[in-house]
Write the C-alpha cells for this entry.
Amino acid sequence: MSPLLEVDGLVKRYPLRRSLLGRTKESFTAVDEVGFRLERGETLALVGESGAGKSTTGRLVLRLIEPDAGNIRFDGTDLRTLPAAEMRRMRLRMQMVFQDPYSSLDPHLPVGDSVGEPLLIHFGTGRKERERRSAEMLDKVGISTSALQRYPTELSGGQLQRVAIARALTTEPAMIVADEPVAALDVSVRAQVLNLMRDLQEELGLSYLFITHDLALVQVIADRVAVMQQGRIVEEGTVADVFAGPREDYTKTLLAAIPDPVPRSMRPGGARMRIRSD
Ligand SMILES: Nc1ncnc2c1ncn2[C@@H]1O[C@H](COP(=O)(O)OP(=O)(O)O)[C@@H](O)[C@H]1O
Ligand SMILES: [Mg+2]
C-alpha cells in the first residue's frame, strides 16, 4: 500500500520586505525543499529547534497555508490541485492538535459541545447524535461524561488537551498533525497524554506527524524521526538508528541536550500510567 502521506519539494517563503508597489523584495525561506513519507499507523517525529520550520511544515501539509512549491499526496490524492470544497472534505481526515488546547476550544461552549461541533459544521448532525458522539469520544480519551457540561476554564491543561484530541477524533481522521501537543503541559501529565496518543493510535490505526523541539519525547512516541534545521530536513531514519548513530553534528548536539535519564514511565514499554479524568 502507498504511504498515507507523501510530501516532496515543499517550499514556503515569507516576505521580509516589500517594495512600494507591494511586491516582495526579499524573502525568507521558512521551509526549504522538504520531503518525507508517513506510513499508515506510524508516527513520524519532526524535530528541531525553535524556528526550524516545523510548524510551518505541519500547516502546509494540511494546506492551512499554501506552499510556494512542492507536492503533497494524502491517501493517493494530490492535495496541491484539490479544489477548496474537496480540500475541506479531505481535512476531516487530517486533523491538527496544537500546543495550546485553549486555542482549539471555544471558551464560551461546554466542552461536550466543542467536541461535537465538527459534526455540526461538516455534516449538520443533530444535537442528540452529536451528544452521543461527544460522550463516546470523551470516553475514548479518558474524560468522564460528567465533564461534558463543563467549560474549558474548569478543566486542567491535561484534561483540555484530551478534549482537544477528542474533538480532533470526531471526524474519524486517518492522520493527526500534533504540533508540540505536550509542551505546555506539566511534566507530570505529559506521559499520560503521550500514552493516550499511543493507545488511540493502536486502537484506531492513526498516523501521527508529531512535531516537537524535545528529542526526549521522540523515543517515547515515534517510529521514525526527521530532523529539521533552518527549513531543511538534515537527517531522517528510524528512531532506533538515529539515536544509536546520528550522522549529522546537528542531531548529535540535539541528542546531547536531552536531559538524562528519560523517566521510566516515559520509556517505551515502561510503566504506563492509566488515568481516568483527574
Ligand atoms: N506568518 C509568518 N510570517 C513570517 N514569518 C513566519 C511566519 N510564520 C513563521 N515564520 C518564520 O518562519 C520560521 C519557521 O517558523 P516555524 O515553522 O514556526 O518554526 P518552528 O515551529 O520549528 O519553531 C521562523 O523563523 C518564523 O519566524
Ligand atoms: Mg512551532
